[in-house]
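FAQ: What does the model actually see?

It sees only this:
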Amino acid sequence: MKTTTDIDKISLHLLKVLHTVLQERSVSRTALKMGMHQPGVSSALRQLRALTGDALLVRSGTGMVLTEQGARMIEPCERVLTAAQRLFDDHSDFEPSKANLTFRIGASDFLDPLFLPHIVSTLRSQAPMCKVIIHSLSAHAPYTQQLASGELDVVIGNWSSPSVELHRVPLFEDDIVSILAQHNPLVVKGWEVDTWLQAEHIAPTSTHLGGYGVIDEHLHTLGLKRHIVVRSQNFSHMPNMVAASLLVLTTGRHFCQRYIQGFTGHLSLVIKEPPIQFPKMSYYQLWHERSHASSAQVWLRSTVKTVADQLRSRSGQDHPLA
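And it is asked to produce this:
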């Protein structure tokens, strides 16, 4: 009785020779088709016969015919070679319209005026069978680990020092301004640096472990510190809090304009330039090496970048939220 074949002796090249020999039923035609010398094909055929314990190909008259075992091996051999090709294929044939995946994007809600909705609508229109999950960023769930584990596919952030372990592509920039209620005395009185620092500030909780946020990081480099009396995870609620109090919110210009020019125009809010010169807020997308070569992820990142570019071009500004 024949013993089990040693799988370690079977290579993909040997299987390809086997499949071609079984199809061509000729050593010479196999050699020509595979770009090999005939002695090389004959040697491989001898090895295959030793491994299977069967002749596989036998002479009949002036030609060659397959043995019963040889005939049975054509279809499974083809399956193995096809599976191997798929295994090592670069998946460049990714088609959004036919894909059925879940895309996970990490972002804070200060991006929601136009940017995130446009990303979601674009993804849904081009990849209708795919799902999209927007994850809030939190210091209690480090984004670097979430990207490394696959919990997130891409993160949209604006920290001054993102993780050097990650890939990064810039998306857009925005000016930093302050917003306060129309009834706030500071609207009339104006402010100097000390007045602004001592005002009652509202600020978001950190979205990454150990981070100040770009506003307070810049103040720290200047040896300054503002008077923060309220912190909130819900960024989109802050303008309402500002409108009903003496709080001051400092963030991107276009987020502030959203609440004055269109989305919640009933709020009596005023935008003022802070007395301290801040660098522009720079937004970017981050991803981990684990997903860098995935064609689906490349498409996702390209879509995010395209949406940012289109909205920025449409507004004529450096920020897509105008």
